[in-house]
Amino acid sequence: MTLTDPASAPRPLPNGYRQSIGNAITIFLGFSLTFLRGWVFEAPGDWTPRSVAAALVLTIPIFMEIHALFRSLRLADDDAAEYVKTVRWFIASVIAMVFAILLSAVILSGAIEPGVAPSPHSPRIER
Fold first, then answer.
1. Secondary structure (H, E, C), 70-108
2. In terms of Cα–Cα distance, which of 41, 60, 127, 49 is closest to 100?
3. Distances in whole angstroms, Cα of residue 107 to Cα of each of 6, 54, 112
4. pLDDT digits over 95-119, tens only?
5. What is the pLDDT of residues 32-58, one digit of tens each?
6. Burial, 85: exposed, middle or buried (Cβ in 10 Å; 0-12, 13-18, 19+)?
7. What's the CA gap between 3 and 56, in Å, rounded?
8. Least buried of 19, 24, 31, 48, by fewest C-beta within 10 Å?
9. CA 4/CA 10 separation, integer angstroms
10. Which of helix, strand or coil describes residue 12?
């Protein structure tokens, strides 16, 4: 007879936790893909190196969200320790998406164009 340490035994998640994280990830993933589509295909103006960089930065959180979704669908995610890692990946992807959206907004507004000092009376600069 082998005795195992109860502290090292996997702790199962309460009912509903895995389904909830899966829903949250897919909702944010849908928003992220929709925002990327709007940025790439529907934003006004010409492409600049900055707008290309913003589009590339927008893809990083999307890949992070896909990774979090993959983790949430694994059977190993029933263990509480693995679930915590998945939640951390998801939170990191949301923070990265907020940063990417703010960067995209700054680039679209033209606030960081080199050699152009924005003034309150200057018109909006199209990209």
1. HHHHCHHHHEHHHHHHHHHHHHHHHHHHHHHHHHHHHHH
2. 60
3. 53, 8, 7
4. 999 999 998 888 877 776 665 555 5
5. 999 999 888 887 777 888 888 888 999
6. middle
7. 52
8. 19
9. 11
10. strand
